[in-house]
Amino acid sequence: MSGHSKWATIKRKKAVIDQKKGKTFAKLARQIDVAARHGGGDPASNAALRTIIQKAKAASMTNDAIDRAIKRATGEAQGSDYEAITYEAYAPGGVALLIDILTDNRNRTASDVRAIFTKCGGSMAAPGAVAWQFSRKGVILVDRAASEDDVMNVVLESGADDLVDDGSVWRVSCDATKVWEVKAALDTAKLPVQSAESTMVSSAVVPVTDAADAKAILKIMDELEEHDDVQDVYANFDIAEALLESVAL
């Protein structure tokens, strides 16, 4: 299973804990803040803000919380000034990672991220070393309780590009701007959607067969996701489900 789909499955299992901590909503609020600050507070004329609001609502973030984040960004309420940075790195086994950051202290965050890789056996990469192989796509995971024919009929009519058997899920790919449209069509058809997001997908997948490497990769992903300044982590690993289950955190 691909790095995106596999990590999405792991993150979903952690989502309840993260929401109890307020971590998920805090990160979404920060993303809304930055999108509104750069493109204005009106979702109708700010596509980036509109996408993040849809993501926030899918995570059950309240309209009040969304509005507060927009008001902070547009000067109607006090808030921090965040800087967007993307780090590139390698995990054990030659796995490539892109790490999206929103921070109010670049030096602190850089030190923290570097420490995670040093501790877990990875390394930071030069700008451009990793990013070239990633492109933004919409990815929707549908439970295998739905038949392939049923999913195929819905997603192709709603503008999806591809449907792949990805182990325990159907993985639907589409243009990043159509992800919520395709999800809505699946919801209308009452097909069980596990997750939907606009994400970065690599053109090159790295198979991971060594248990130690697999464990180290998941440890890096987990520690990065736990960091308040890290918004998203993208990776190109391919770990067999049996191996993943034996080493998963």
Task: Give an account of the 3D structure.
The protein has helices at 3-21, 23-39, 47-58, 63-73, 106-120, 148-157, 179-188, 211-226, 241-247, and strands at 83-91, 95-103, 123-124, 134-143, 160-165, 169-174, 193-202, 206-208, 230-235, 237-239. It folds into 3 domains: 16-73, Arc Repressor Mutant, subunit A (Orthogonal Bundle), CATH 1.10.10; 83-132 and 204-238, YebC, transcriptional regulation domain (Alpha-Beta Plaits, 2-Layer Sandwich); 134-202, Alpha-Beta Plaits (2-Layer Sandwich), CATH 3.30.70. α8 packs across α9. It is globular and about 45 Å long. It contains 9 helices and 10 strands.
- Give the distance, in angstroms, between the N- and C-terminal Cα atoms: 17 Å
The biggest beta sheet is recorded as: 4 strands, antiparallel
The shape is globular
How many β strands by DSSP?
10
The level 1 CATH classification of the largest domain is Alpha Beta
Radius of gyration: 18 Å
Strand order of the largest sheet: 3-1-2-9
Secondary-structure element series: HHHHEEHEEHEEHEEHEEH
Q: Please mark out the parts with pLDDT under 50 across 5 or more consecutive residues, or reply none.
A: none
**CATH topology value of the largest domain:** Alpha-Beta Plaits
Percent of residues in beta strands: 25-35%
In helices, the fraction of residues equals 40-55%
What is the CATH architecture term of the largest domain? 2-Layer Sandwich
SS field, number of helical segments: 9
In total, how many domains does the architecture comprise? 3
CATH superfamily of the largest domain, by name, is YebC, transcriptional regulation domain
Structural class, by secondary structure, is alpha+beta
